[in-house]
Sequence to fold (92 residues):
Amino acid sequence: MEAVRVQQIVAKDGEVLVRGIPWKRGQAVEIIVLSQPLKTDSPSRLTVRQFRQSGLIGMWKDRDDIGDSASYARSLREQGQKRGEIDFDLVR
Fold:
C-alpha cells in the first residue's frame, strides 16, 4: 500500500479539498484525516544584552537565606533532575 502525505488547512468548516494525488479514477483509496496542533510561536532566545537587562543575573544577591548562590542553584538543578527520573525497573 502506497502512502501519500498531503497537508491542508481547513478553509470551510467540515470540508477539506485534496488535489494532486497520484491515483486514477476508479481506484479505491482509504483516507485518514489527522488534525495537527496549532503552531505557537516558540519562545525567542535572549541576546546577551537582553539577558543582562532582564534582572536574572544577581537576583539572589540580597537574599539572607541563600549563603552560596552557586551551591543553591546546583541543589535546585539536582532536585529538578530527580523529579524527572523514571525507574525503568518499575515500568516493565
